[in-house]
Amino acid sequence: MPEPERIDRRRAALIAYDVCRRALAPADPARRAAMRPVLDAWVQMIAAARAAGVPVIYTTPVSRADGADVVMLPTDLSAETGVPPLTNAVEGTAEAGFPDEISPLPEDYVFLKRRPSAFYGTGVAELLHMLRRDTIIIGGGATNRGVETSVREGHGQSQTTSTPSARQLGAQGMRDARLIV
Q1: pLDDT digits (tens, 9 = 90+) for 58-85
Q2: What is the pTM of this model?
């Protein structure tokens, strides 16, 4: 097995992408039970980052209740009908917040977002520059679309990005997730 990647904690930041209640602690009991291993992995990941002094940056996908601020992308199926999909949580609701187990602490950073990106229109890139953090560890709460987009955008901004491996964050490996610093 290859050596684990070593990350310089003085240059790193953890982006907890869309780890909101809507994704990790949904109202439906069956879905909530299915997401529990993901939430447990985030508990460990965030604790490890904090213990290592790595800044934790949260993002949460939000929209207005009427969907008027939903940005439709060419890949959205509803682009043909013109009806915006309200797949984000409604800003200000409990769904847009974070599960108690991983709720942000005062030293953490929280950014609301309206597009599938941690960077586009959020201020995350500026924060990373201000903190002098050029290595990003990023993982998602629900899907890989926004994580992949964020990794691509991070590379475009001269950020080094790292996503936890499938072994660390796969369905079986969620309990073993950890940040190596």
Answers
A1: 988 887 888 777 766 666 555 566 555 5
A2: 0.75
Pick the CATH number of 18-175 from 3.10.290.10, 3.30.1050.10, 3.40.50.850, 3.40.50.620: 3.40.50.850
The model's pLDDT over 138-175, given as tens digits with 9 standing for 90+, comes to 887 655 666 666 666 665 555 555 555 433 333 333 33
Whose tokens are 């229109």? That residue is 121
DSSP the chain: -PPPPP--TTTEEEEEET-SHHHHS-SSHHHHHHHHHHHHHHHHHHHHHHHTT--EEEEEEEE-TT-TTPPPPTT-GGGTTTPPP--SEETTSGGGS--GGGPPPTTSEEEEESSS-SSTTTSHHHHHHHHT--EEEEEESS-SHHHHHHHHHHHHTT-EEE---HHHHSTTGGGG-----
